[in-house]
Request: fold
Amino acid sequence: MNITFELNGQMHSVEASPWKRLLDVLREDLRLTGTKEGCGEGECGACTVIMDGEAVNSCLVAIGQCHGRTLTTVEGLATGDVLHAVQRALVACGGAQCGICTPGIAVCAAHVIDRGLLEGADEATARTKVRELLAGNICRCTGYQLIVDAIVVAAREVTR
Amino acid sequence: MDRSAGPVGASVPRVDGIAKVTGRARYLDDLDAPGAWHGVTVRSTVAHGVLEAIDLDPGFDWSQVTVATAADVPGNNFIRLIEDDQVALVPIGGRVMHVDEALALVAAPTKALAFAAAKAVKPRVRALPGVLDIDSSLAVTQKLYGSDNVFKQFLVRKGHATDAELEAAFARATKVIEGTYWTSPQEQMYIEPQAMMAEWDGERCYLVGSMQCPYYVHKAMKAFLDRDADDVVVSQSVTGGGFGGKEEYPSMLAAHVAVLAKKAGKRVKMVYERDEDIAATTKRHPCRTQHRLAADANGEIVAIDVDVVMDGGAYLTLSPVVLSRGVLHAAGPYRCPVVRVRGRVVATNYPPHGAFRGFGAPQTTFAYERQMQKLALALGEDGFAIRKRLALRSGDTTATGQQLGFSVGTDEVLAAIEKVAGPPPARDGKAANGAPLRRGRGYVFYFHGAGFTGSGEQRLAGKATVAVTAEGRFEVRSSSTDIGQGAITIFTQIAASALGVDPASITVIDPSTAQVPDSGPTVASRTCMVVGGVVEHAAKALRAKLEQWGAANGVVGRRGVGAEGAATAETTSVPLLEIARAYARKEGELAELVTYEPPPGIAWDDATYTGSAYPVYGWAACLVDVAVDLDTYEVAIERCVQAVDVGKAINPSIVKGQIEGGTLQALGWAVLENVIYKDGKVANANMTNCIVPTFADAPELETVIVECPYPYGPHGAKGVGEIPMDGPAAAVANAVEDALGCSFDSLPISPEVVAASKPRWRLS
Reply:
């Protein structure tokens, strides 16, 4: 069936089985390989995308559910050549190591920051909130410390 | 791409950082691979048996599918590593040695068809009784390896010649502490599953994939495919984590895709599903460590006796080396005149256990650091004070008789912990939901040998090249892979510093056996210390040649060379690149290939297991505060401070990332990670049940980098990758013991284990 949705600011139309996973449509049909598959069961968060203002695991979303929706993937975080504040902070703070979880974390963290979920929080509260809000994104390399640093730095920069 | 990696000692951003945060970094499954078929493995469902036949469901349409079996293997049907004992595919009539062992392979144009076809392949296996614990293996209930099921054993003796002398030392002691410690298997859980692709061009096989060690795959595939070195080309794709899990196992995938690609006449790609990856690939060796420790009236340790038994799983693979490291660390970093360490690794019918960060040392470290805590309690001494009092320092000798000289960071790491420790947390408290909490604190002190064991680095003779290309750029060529630990950034910094040039003019090329020399594997905390050192020497040699050529040919840069022709980073930072460009225009490429040379005074005797087990050690101390929820029995880690002597942090941010990542893996192993086997099969082969710490599980990690330079490492650097994995689990156990007043001698310390311990609690 034909499914139409807005992706990273552009309208897209794909011909696919409605049961096909959004993750596979992104990676195979649209060749947007920034969204990664780590587990295929919604545990690791490597495939996180934003769908109508909510962070979702694209491995658990059927493309049939996406008709008429608005999606953002890691490829849509930057504005032209200007990276999102959290992407810059992840690089600057050493928050990316092997990088396979990084797109999902960048998407989720950008969403958290852009929705203002860390606004007004002091450092300690912001750090605790980040740990709760990103609990669906697993990173095996960093111990999370430098990622939390990066997200808090980026949130401060955006608020300013 | 951001190429701003700067001078040594600065936390410059990773050179691959931008590619990774934008999703542009291409892992194996992201590569354009037009026409690639998908490979799937048909696996055993029994732990031990004989493969009698492989039937193909006659109702299935096989016209679009390639099926491969052991009969299709072009060469030697083994994964060549230490011994040729692990088959790539079980032949008809051959022994099935573990659940999820590969019996056949299928490839098809689509993943869906390949999976359907795999289900239609019906192996017939006659089951035999399995050997599923180390005692059954030692009792040889079934012969799995040799006559005794022992893959390898080691014996270390210090300060005594016979067992009678050892027992005499114990007899003279005033206190003897004995314990038996069990550590669980652990899944590496890299977030990118194992992935590999093969393509044939005539007789030449090209392999690309997610891996730590391209030359391990190359060595295995030369034999497996019966090809000359040039006819196997192995390249690493961007690799989404390894932690040891992509040390030896990628050769298995390489064998499988190579044989499928040859038979199908297609490019074939294999990307494991998560459940398959957890079920079939290597885990940390489960281990039983029995430890006896004797102290005299002054509280000095007078004798240590350790017996280590590791479960190697079905094949030998890397087990002898894992055991070796476990044995060499088993007596711990403490003064003791009389030491015996016995180690055995035995065969069972589990999937082979293998490399995982720490490589045997975390298992034995858990045991000796629990023993030290028990000794402290027996002597009525503070857990920190006893470690400080008994720790090895420069001039002391290790269990193998190695006299320590340089770069012993004992006092520095202990001082770092002491400085930030503060008072222990309030013993009793309440959780946010009102549940009663009981708190405790634990300390540990530990060491980790950097680089290969004994004369391993001499045998490896790791090589690296620094070159000026024909296009006038600087290139670093090594087979050390960046698996997230920052190798390419560190190499860029080291080479830039040695050449005195802008890091932006240097490229560390992607490892391919067609283009890089064999630097040895990316393992053993050796990449920065050993290969980084070779890169530094190669860069210096290249710089000297270029400067010589420049002087001889009248090529000088804009700013000229230094005052008396002296080469300094400042004066030649612009000129060297210009000389290089001039050289390239006239002469073409200039490449300096350098081979590792061990530092002087390193002598190791493999026969007696005495001497310098490692050229240098990392040293670390850790403090952990826990809160045990007395309603749910969960152990929460409230604070974790780790101080690690790394010699020199080439890039402090990357070093911090290494330490913290390793620490959280250790904390996870301590309280929540576990691999559950049932009848030889992994029962929790998914991320829902085989859990690892999330953002919410992780405490704020406090990291102190200590620098006691290693004179033979680049800028003083020594290994850091593994040491943070060794100690924290014991620190957690010591802290839980402090909280609840009873001992925890096995991992993980899960809520079930804490609940079961309740009758033993002594809450004063």
